Amino acid sequence: MPNIKIALDAMGGDFAPEQIVKGAVLAANDPTRNFDILLCGPEAIVKEELKKNDYSGDAITVIDAPDLVAMDEPPTQVLKTKPKSGLVTCVALQKQGIAAASISAGNSGAMMAACLMILGRVANISRPAIACAMPTAKRQAILLDCGANVDEKASVLVDFALCGSVYAEAVMGYENPTVGLVNMGEEEKKGPEVLQEAYQLLKQTPLNFIGNIEGRDFIKGHADVAIAPGYAGNVILKLMEGFFELAHEVFGEVKTEKAKEFDLLWDYRNHGGGLLLGLNGVGIITHGRADHIAIRHSLFTACKFARAGVPAKIAEKLSAIKVSTEHTH
Amino acid sequence: MPNIKIALDAMGGDFAPEQIVKGAVLAANDPTRNFDILLCGPEAIVKEELKKNDYSGDAITVIDAPDLVAMDEPPTQVLKTKPKSGLVTCVALQKQGIAAASISAGNSGAMMAACLMILGRVANISRPAIACAMPTAKRQAILLDCGANVDEKASVLVDFALCGSVYAEAVMGYENPTVGLVNMGEEEKKGPEVLQEAYQLLKQTPLNFIGNIEGRDFIKGHADVAIAPGYAGNVILKLMEGFFELAHEVFGEVKTEKAKEFDLLWDYRNHGGGLLLGLNGVGIITHGRADHIAIRHSLFTACKFARAGVPAKIAEKLSAIKVSTEHTH
Q1: CB within 8 Å of chain A, chain B residues 246-275
Q2: Could you give the CA distance from residue B168 to residue B260 in angstroms, rounded to a whole number?
Q3: Considering chain B, what percentage of its residues have pLDDT values greater than 70?
Q4: CA–CA separation, B25 and B59 (whole Å)
C-alpha cells in the first residue's frame, strides 16, 4: 500500500513558515511515519526553509501556493480571493483525491469555512465541530465543540456527541466510549435549557451517555467524550492550556515520574490539534502558536484520523441511530 | 465597638456538624478575630460537638434550630417547612439585625432562596450572583456568576460586573479593578449573542471594562473581575478545583517556595466560599465539602464583607452609573 498524503499549510500560524516546515521535516525523518507530506505555500519560501533544515528526502513535496492569508481575514474573503493560498490549497488537494487530510495552523475561521465549502458535511450532520483530545487524570478525553459554533440548538449537541463517540472509538480505540454533557450539576433538570433538552435527546440515542458531568469530573476523566456548547468548550480548552502553562511555571524543575507523565499528557503540543468532526474528509486546525512539536503531532494524528475512515463511520453510526430511533417509536 | 456577629449554619454540608463546629472553634480561638459566632443548629447536637472540641469561650453562642435540611430538598419547600433549620435561622438572624452575615455549606439552592426571600435584593439589581475569589498567576480574581443563574439576559451580566467590581474594590482593596467578559475570543463580535450584547452595554458603563478575556487570560490574571454566565462560571469554578486536586496529586510532595505559594493560592478552602452579591445583606454559600479550614476562612471573609458595607456600596455605584448614563444621553 503506498503512503497516504497529508497536505499541510506551510504559511499558517504565528511561527510560520519556520516552525511548520521544521515540524514537517521532524515527521518526515520519523522512522514510524507511514504517510507523505504535501507542503503548501509559496514555492521559493518553502524550499528555502527546507534547505535551512537540511532536508533532501522524498517524503515532502512542495505544492506552490503563493497567496498569503492573514490571521484575521474574514473567512469568506479568503475563500473568494485567496484560492491559491496554502490554507485553501491543502483542502482542495483533499477534494481532488490527492491528499487524505488537510492541516492548517492559520486563520481557523477560514480553515473551517474552506473545509465546509470544499469538502462538505457528512449527510444529516448539521454543523461540524472542533474536537480536541484533552488530558484528564485517567486517559485522554475528546472535548467538543471547542469553538466552531455558538448558540447551538440541542440537536446540534447530539450531533457532536455522535461524532465524538465515533472518533473516540475509531481513532483512540476506546470501546463503547462514555459520553458526558458538561453541565453545572449532575441532575437532569440542571443548567441552561438547551442542555436540559440535549440531555433528554441523548438518553434516547444508543450512545453510552452517562449524563451530566461537572468541571471536576471532566478533569478526573469520568467521560471519554465531553460535550459542550462551542462557547463553553472553548473556555475549557483555553483554561486547560493556561493551567498547563502555570503548572509548568510553578513545577517546571520537578522531574519525578509523575511530573514527567503530567508534562507529557498535559502539553497541548502533544494533542494533535483541533479535529474537524462531521466533515466529508479530514481537517485539522492546529493551534496558532503551534511549534514544530505540535505540527509533527498533527501530522501523525491526521494520518490516524484518515486511515480510520472517521467520516464514513460517522455516516454509518448515524443511519444505525436513525434505525434504532425509528424502532423505538 | 462591640464585635459583629456572624451566623453560621451548623448542620449544612457533607461534613456537618463536625467540621462546621470545628471550623467555628478554630476561628473563635484566632487572636485576630473581631467577630462573634452564632452557631445555628439543634442545641444538644451542637453543644455536644463544642464539648468534643473542648470549647468553653464566649465567642460562640448556640442558637437552637432543630429542623434539618437535606442537600437535595427543593428550596421553596425548605423555606416553607423548615423555618427552624440552621440554614433559615442564620439568615433570619441577619434580617432581625442580630447577625451581620450568614453562612451555610448546606443546600445551596435553599440558601440562595432564603437570602433572596428574607434579605431581598439591592434595588435595581435583577438577580443576585455567586461570586468566588479565584486563584490566578497574579492575584485573586473575582469570578461571577458561579452558578446561581442560567440563561441570563445581557443586562443581568452587566449587573454581575457592577457587583463584582464593587466587591473587588471594597473587600479585596483593588483600585479601579479591571473587568473582563469570559468569552471565546477577544474581538467584540465573538461568542454567543448575549455576550456580544453585554460587551456593548459594558462599554457604556464607567467600570474599568477591558473587553473579552479567554480562559488562558483568566488564569494569567488579566482581569480582577471575570464575568461569565452562571453555566460557564460554574464550569470554570469546578475545573479550577479539579486542577488544584490534580496538581496536588501530581506535585503533592514538592516543597519549593513556588509550590507552597501555589498550594496556598489554589486551595479552594482558602477562598472563603461563594459570596452572594446583589443582596441586601451578606450571604455566603460555602462548598458542600467544606472542612474546618474552609469554614474558618468563610467566617473571616463574611466579617470583611459585612464591615465593608458591600450592599450599600453596590446601591451607591448603581445610582452613580444611572446618573452617568443619563448624562451621556
Answers
A1: 246-247, 249-251, 253-254, 256, 258-259, 261-262
A2: 25
A3: 97
A4: 9
Shortest distance between the Cα of A128 and any Cα of chain B, in A, equals 17
Tell me if A228 sits within 8 A of A144, measured CB to CB.
Answer: yes
- Distance between CA B318 and CA B322 in Å, rounded? 6
Q: In whole angstroms, give the CA distance from residue A204 to residue A181.
A: 14
For B55-98, the pLDDT digits (tens) are 989 999 999 999 999 988 999 999 999 999 999 999 999 999 99
B193 neighbourhood in chain A, CB within 8 Å:
150-151
Q: State how far the Cα of A39 lies from the Cα of A61, in Å rounded to an integer.
A: 6
Residue B269 DSSP label: G
Residues in contact with A96: Cβ distance below 8 Å, sequence separation at least 6, in sequence order? none
Which of A164, A292, A274, A271 has its CA nearest to residue A223?
A: A164
The residues, any chain, with a CB within 8 Å of residue A185's CB and separated by 6 or more, are A191, A212, A214, B147, B234
Query: The whole model's pTM is what?
Result: 0.93
A67 forms bridges with which residues in the sheet?
A: A85
What strands, in cross-sheet order, belong to the sheet with B35-41? B60-64, B35-41, B4-9, B101-104, B283-285, B274-277, B129-134, B141-144, B225-227, B178-182, B208-213
Give the residue from chain B lying closest to A243, CA to CA: B219
The two beta strands, B101-104 and B129-134, are: unpaired
Residue type at position A284: I
pLDDT tens by residue, B89-136: 999 999 999 999 999 999 999 999 999 999 999 988 988 999 999 999
Q: Which residue of A has its CA nearest to B187?
A: A72
Q: Which residue of B has its CA nearest to A239?
A: B215
Contact assignment for B150 to A191 by CB distance below 8 Å: yes
Residues of B in contact with A287 (CB under 8 A): none
Contact A216 B241 (CB under 8 A): yes
Q: Compute the nearest-CA separation of A99 from chain B (Å).
A: 31
Query: Smallest CA–CA separation between B242 and chain A, in Å?
Result: 4
Question: What DSSP letter does each residue of A101-126 carry, written as one string?
Answer: EEEESS-HHHHHHHIIIII-BPTT--
Chain B residues in contact with A135 by the CB 8 A cut-off are: none
Which has more pLDDT, A321 or A252?
A252
Q: What domains does chain B contain, in order, with CATH numbers?
A: 1-120+278-308 (3.40.718.10), 126-277 (3.40.718.10)
Q: Exposure pattern of B135-163 as b/e (b: 16+ CB <10 Å)?
A: bbbeebbbbbbbbbbbebebebbbbbbbb
For B34, the grid coordinates are 473581631
CB of A26 closer than 8 Å to CB of A55: no
Burial of A84 (0-12, 13-18, 19+ CB in 10 A): middle
A245 to chain B: which residues are within 8 Å by CB?
216, 219
Residue of A nearest to B256 (CA): A251
What CA–CA distance (Å, rounded) separates B235 from A180?
13
Within 130-149 of B, beta carbons closer than 8 Å to A belong to: 137, 147
CA–CA dist A237, A297 (Å, integer): 18
- Is B234 in CB contact (< 8 Å) with chain A? yes
Max Cα–Cα distance, chain A, nearest Å: 64
